Amino acid sequence: MPRLRDLGITPGRLPAGTLNAITDVPGVLVGHVTLIQGEGPLRPGHGPIRTGVTAILPHPGNLFQEKVPAAVQTINGFGKACGFLQVRELGVIETPILLTNTLSVSAAAESVISFMIEQNPAIGITTSTVNPVVGETNDGFLNDIQGRHVRPEHVRDCIRSARGGPVPEGNVGAGTGTVCYGFKGGIGTASRQIEGEFILGALVQTNFGSRRDLMVTGLPLGALLEQDPMPKAGPGSVMVVLATDAPLDSRQLGRLAMRAAFGLARTGSYCSQGSGDFVVAFSTANRRAHHPAAQVENITRLPDEHPAFEMLLLGVVEAVEEAVLNALVAAETMTGRDGHTVHALPHGPLLDFVGRRQPGVE
Fold first, then answer.
1. Average pLDDT in the 206-222 region?
2. What is the CATH number of domain 4-289+304-353?
3. For the residues 337-348, what does the mean pLDDT come to?
């Protein structure tokens, strides 16, 4: 699928990572399971199905035994997420991060709990229980969301298929049935190099915004295209996952997570009253052992005052902005339940209105 830079449009000023994806952060893996089945009128519980699940693994090892520093930020809390409260309290993530549709959160949580118990049979018996982290957006405009078609085997396959390397974008995984700025939304990702030493990556599940609000590199593309037919979808939501290999603690990751709102705003979002807008941020450095070997730990941490931390803040804004636009560029027109059709963002007007105004783009 094409990406924004394939069209000659380069947002921001920091250099992108090698893949321009969250998997540029060493050890981070991403998996998708995409569920597309049936067409025609909605038959609750039967279809049509336009949904899926996406898994982000901070590292390929045992996350319960080697937790990662983490933070969660709520931009607007109209959502049904799972596990966020404990992440805020303890500052760690100990399972894969799952994204799915609103009514499949409980199924995803139950499935990841089972997966973690298989890896760690002591959970809930001779050691603590486990905290599943699941985010969601509502794909009910295209999908039979009441059917809760995400099953345990889909979650298991998603986690086990998670890989490094290029990340499929657009109509995949948790982005299969989503709508963004009145166009087909989906999954998008991007990354930024920080001071030549660290990497900051973002992955988004885009399901938000009105067409008239869409901005691309500061230009009001949505207003130009507003006269085109738009789906009557709801206000929508967005899930943002941030990853970095910079040695940050939970407080610092919370500061990064706050900046994701600015990246969304660059694309035109104001986080409407009915939107659920959440950010999960983690660092792959300074893993925390489930059973610490020492009474006191010495941890290396990047100071807030270091120029690299300043660039991490900027990197979040740029990576989130580009990840949203990558989702829009990669997504394809989709017809779902009751004949609802959401069209892809047209690349021609995007190039005419935005690309040719950038230096070096013909």
1. 93
2. 3.60.70.12
3. 95
